[in-house]
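From the shared-data thread, chain only:
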Amino acid sequence: MDLIAELEEALSEAAPRIEGAGSVEELDKVETALLGKNSAVGKVRRAMGGIEAAERPHVGARLNVVTTEIEALIAQCRSALALLDEQHRLTDDRIDVTLEAIGFPQGSLHLIQQTIDEVVDIFNGLGYLVASGPEAELSWYNFDALNTPPTHPSRLESDTMYLDYGDPDDEVLLRTQTSPVQVRWMEQHQPPVYVVVPGKVYRTDTIDASHLPVFHQIEGLAVDDSLTFPDLKGTLAHFAREFFGPKTTVRLRPHFFPFTEPSAELDVSCFVCDGGEPWCRVCGGAGHLEMLGCGMVDPNVFEAVGYDPARVTGFAFGMGVERLAMVRHGINNIRHFVDNDLRFLRQFS
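Structure, as tokens:
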């Protein structure tokens, strides 16, 4: 057997076979056929032990040369195939960045939440903190601690949503106002107190253009050692100017609330007609808009939470969020807030 001849024949066949490989997988098979155990090179490698000692260096040297050349051809082809494969993948995965991207609808906060955030931000600027509390409330916090007598009509089942009704000492209800949070805050904090309380409230109102059984309120409480009624008016006048516009003025009308004395209703000047024009769609010619209730905290409320009414004074106010939004945006039906009509909601996105 002429081993040198076999090596030369294997080397001459290597180049075309390697060049004919169209993929890395095919090249692996060619490499096995050229350099593997059953290849011509492999047979010569196994036969080295049986040839004459004088011929062995010559055959061994040629075996190394042929093996090195075939491995070099394979390595060169493998590099070219890898580059070609990468180019194919880049072509297949190519993205045209000039095409318009797929768009997804962008949501926004509901108008009610937008209004809450804006009002809270105004009072945050005055140093007020935000307080929150349970929506399922004890009757004591919702009524008794707020100086509401047992005979008050708001305590009837026809006005309030009770979860457990009948025992005045242990009644549970869905809060009718966010004022109970003020009581809880005062129980846990000593004066001075400056808080606003946004949240849902519940009443047994029939749904119509101006009433919902579930709506939102923002109430505020300030307690310090020398607060007066002018402080209350000045605070609410600042709020009105920030929310409705810098030219807005306020006026206070006497009213009654069990938890404040004296009490008042706050009206703001019409921010559309600025004075009461008969054509005005907002005030209808009245010139002012009824906006919220307020007053100085009744001493009985301070006593209920452990404050000394001889040492501290305070004022409180409460506003309906839906009312604020309706007046500001000229919305004539409160049901729009809960109908989930995108034609309405998108106007405020």
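The beta strands are 129-130, 136-138, 162-164, 172-174, 193-202, 214-224, 250-257, 260-269, 288-297, 313-320.
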